[in-house]
Amino acid sequence: MAELSELQECVQRYCARYHIMTFPISRLYDLEAEWDSTSFPYAGRKGCYAYFDESEQLIYIGKASCNSTIGIRASTYHRMENGKLIATGGSHWPKAAKWLVTIPVHEAHQAPSLEEFLIEVLAPPANVTGRTKI
Asked: Phi-psi bin for 109: left (phi > 0), alpha (psi -120 to 50), beta?
């Protein structure tokens, strides 16, 4: 499985390939300790998000484009209940998510393209579409 450094390198490679100003990439956001879907890094923006397990291995990549935002999409996978983070999505994931990383894009149409590129290159185990490595 991929680590954060590999995700960062792939985002830079994507931007260079398509001559796009580099996208910022958030720090690792601790889902349990910091939970608040409105305070995710870049929560109000369009872009991609990546979930990592407790050993910081990539599990899943998703996107927020069109009528959604990173905060709205990423928060569909968890909710806080009685002070404990409960997974509401990703039941098919090989491991539980511990960390979230967000990647805002400059234009909404870039999110689906970036998502497909990252899935194709990094092959996160919970993504079933676009799993051919390049």
From this structure: alpha
Question: What are residue 78's DSSP bridge partners?
Answer: 87
- Of the candidates 60, 5, 10, 7, the one whose C-alpha atom is nearest the C-alpha of residue 31 is 60
Mean pLDDT per 10-residue section of the chain, whose length is 134 residues? 96 98 96 80 96 96 94 88 83 89 97 96 86 57
Q: What pTM value is reported for the model?
A: 0.92
User: Is there a domain that residue 42 lies in?
Assistant: yes
> What domain range includes position 26?
4-122
Give the C-alpha separation, 132 to 76, whole Å: 26
Q: Give a yes or no: residue 104 inside a domain.
A: yes
Q: What's the one-letter identity of residue 101?
A: V
Considering its fold, how many domains does the chain have in total?
1
